[in-house]
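== Folding task for one protein ==

=== Format: two labelled lines per protein ===

==== Paired sequence and structure tokens ====
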Amino acid sequence: MIYAFAALLLWAGGYALNVKLANAPGAEHGPARIVVPLIFGVTVLGFWELLVRGFAVPAVILPPPSSIVATFAANIGTLWQDFAQTILKGAIAGYLIGCGAAFATALLVDRYDYLKRGLLPLGNFMAALPIVGTAPILVMWFGFGWQSKAAVVVLMVFFPMLVNTVAGLQDTTSMQRDLMRTYAASWTQTLIKLRLPAAMPFIFNGLKISTTLALIGAIVAEFFGSPTLGMGFRISTSIGQLDLGMVWSTIVVAALAGSAFYGLISWLERKATFWHASQRK
């Protein structure tokens, strides 16, 4: 009961403090933008720790955060090797190849109408394919190394990036396009000076969506075949060993990597589209 009462007291205190900070003058642009989510995160972790210890929840069901931190600190080397195998090799390589190929294909689709009519409906079909069905096939084709994980990522990010880029290239008015024609601008000049700048928010939206898909694809692909490294491999083997601390440590690495990757693309978007209405304050 003491742990439960302490958990409720912690939650109430964190909630009251966050409400006060969030409603303070200038909270939208001041330090409160960072402090409020930090307080919320610490409150959730403390609530989790107290309830798990108070109700004596077995570690094989839900370990306390302190146990996860200890496991994380004791296995930094292993977690780094898994991170390098899954993220730096499989996910990043597949992300760059898939998004780059999708962007090039979008330019062709925009240039030739028959590709738009034939390829985009196929994209909807491919996007509906379950990864648990396609990943084993690609692992059989490309082997157990990072190449098969990159292939899965390419398949996952290609069509979301393609659809967003094509939609962005079409996000210009007929008056704008007519104006470019009155200047005798070619298709390439119109693309570079008008349509690509207008498409930038859509392109970055596709890039941000693909960051999450790339991470998920690389990890799930490792469940179907991997060398003795990788985040998906670590999760599957640790589950078999009932080592939930290692499972949660790997999940923490994946969450941090995904957040950092998404944040990097968002930062690049703000730098590249500072002129757009969505970025102006």
Summary: The radius of gyration is 24 Å. Residues 76-111 form the longest helix (36 residues). The mean pLDDT is 83.
